[in-house]
């Protein structure tokens, strides 16, 4: 199955191609969403639409980067309401097969592990991502 | 009338809405049926009749069920032998649809169903005549002639000379399906000769855009006038106004009606399509502003032609936006039409004698506002009758007429629409209201003392208060007033109360005409820009707050005759406030949920008219946000819901 492969620093993650609408360069300036949960990086103006963007690092409890470029926003395809994921960079589209179950104590949004050549890739579950974001909002 | 339990009343509303839809669809089918009957078409008609029959049966409306059943019989017969469907059949079906409509209307109003005997008879007779044994009742559709009507007219001599005849007729005001009737009349007349003139045009006629001055048709025919009159009479619900040689110019009645009273022609558009139009027109406005902002980077020498092109673009886009907004305007009758019936029900239920007067229902509002106001208006009416107007014996004792009077007045005041619900009931006792608020600890005695009468009356909108039963007694208002206020403010409106003990209460809702474009005061706090709806802003103060009042944490700032508490906007929004507020930083005084408050901000950025965008999931879950917009520089900016900013 074809996946969009992207990175948080050196770690590789993937989402099924069908779950991704597009990838854009992250804006230089974010509009902060007041009173929003920590995982929300802010909103961005995507061709006139206001799209909330979640910092995938916060969602996965990954370490914050020392510094870096603006990053990329992976836009999930979820009907009319849109959601973006902020990542470090996008590698491309690759065929991937799940090679193993998620490691113990992994986040609920992890579907399993795959391999790209010798590199390990963590495959994410788009529906679980969506649910995790909704949960973050409703729990304040 | 029969007493129906409330549950059944709910189903009745559903029945009425659905039955009307089926009948409307059936009527539309009749038009196409006239142009050429097909099995599919008769099938569709049969399905509508069948659905109606089933619905009427569940509602125990035997009369409607029986009539729909007869109609079903006829359609079943026609389906088997579709080439025998003719003008007579269309007529009878249309008559049945009419009677069904009156029956549905009667059911809606709880009246007994009108008698359907004659039309049932006609349906049965036609069904019988179409039985396989019987001969054809008319020619096949291709060469169809209108059924020869009985010679009843003696209007004019039957001169067989060909010539032009002008016929003017109109669809009876009460008749249902005017479009169908108008079209049928045209269709029948066209069988007598060539139609050389038609006003309105055929498309308009089919779309049901019937001018109040009637339909004018010019016919080149050798048929005598009497035959034309007879043919026109075969269409029920169509009345002849004038007939004569076509030499005469078009009747000049049009202008005497007065231009503003002429009903404008209309088409129906799906509501979601209207929303999409507006969204796109709004996006265009934003995109234009963005291009203008970008053009500032162009060297001065090249600017003039770009500016000129942008001005033109802006004008066009603004014009388009205005037109879309106008197209969304919906008559307020969508709300007010429901009120008399509701008033009767509430009054009967609560044992009140109440007269309801509705005025100004020709005012129009944005569709979204009409939707948003329906429930609050119903609530205010309920409050006025249930809690405002006293029982007749109390009124008599107080020297008032025993019958209470509730007035609903809608008026346009500049760029606002004002909706007033006024009763002549017991009124609100402000002192007792304050005592109650104080007893519940919802406001400090000092704050209550400092309150103006206007502010004190608004205490009935306090969330903790308005549901309490004892307040209902005291206030003559109360139930759900917080919800009403919130709903009104959510779409940019304001709520005001006026009341005098023993004389009655007035609730006044002042609404913007449209929701999509809102006036904002832009403020900057902690490096972020936010918009405060102008409708919620009372004013701006640029002084440093005084020392905290003894026993109170929040600093106060002088405002008008009194003081208002200061809140740091950065704190309310949970923003990292890097610096302590600078001396002399401005305060924006806003209308909060409970009382006015002053929001401390870093900077005022000025007023802007913006296109409001609704918040999509999950942003709509964030309390305190009313919407979002995109400024000219492309930056999204949140619009704050002032009433929900302060912790409750």
Walkthrough of the structure:
- The complex is a heterodimer of chains A (140) and B (648).
- Chain A is mainly beta.
- In chain A, 13% of the residues lie in helices and 47% in strands.
- In chain A, the strands form 2 sheets. Chain A has a 6-stranded mixed β-sheet. A 5-stranded mixed β-sheet of chain A has the order 3-6-7-5-4.
- Chain A is globular, with a radius of gyration of 14 Å.
- The relative contact order of chain A is 0.25.
- Chain B is of the alpha+beta class.
- Chain B has 5 domains: 6-140, HPT domain (Four Helix Bundle (Hemerythrin (Met), subunit A), Up-down Bundle), CATH 1.20.120.160; 163-247, Alpha-Beta Plaits (2-Layer Sandwich), CATH 3.30.70; 272-327; 331-512, Histidine kinase-like ATPase, C-terminal domain (Heat Shock Protein 90); 517-644, SH3 type barrels (Roll).
- In chain B, strand 20 (625-630) and strand 21 form a beta hairpin.
- In chain B, helix 1 (6-35) runs antiparallel to helix 4 (87-108) and helix 3 (62-80) packs parallel to helix 5.
- Chain B is globular.
- Residues 1-7, 134-161, 248-261, 466-478 and 547-551 of chain B have low confidence and may be disordered.
- At the A-B interface, strand 4 and helix 2 of A face helix 9, strand 20 and strand 21 of B.
The CATH architecture of chain A can be named as: Beta Barrel
Cα end-to-end separation of chain A: 36 Å
Helix amount of chain B, in percent? 40-55%
Largest sheet of chain A: 6 strands, mixed
Unreliable spans of chain A: none
Largest interface: A-B, 21 and 25 residues
Q: How many beta-strand runs of chain A? A: 11
Average pLDDT figure of chain A: 86
Which superfamily, in CATH terms, is the homologous superfamily of chain A? CheA-289, Domain 4
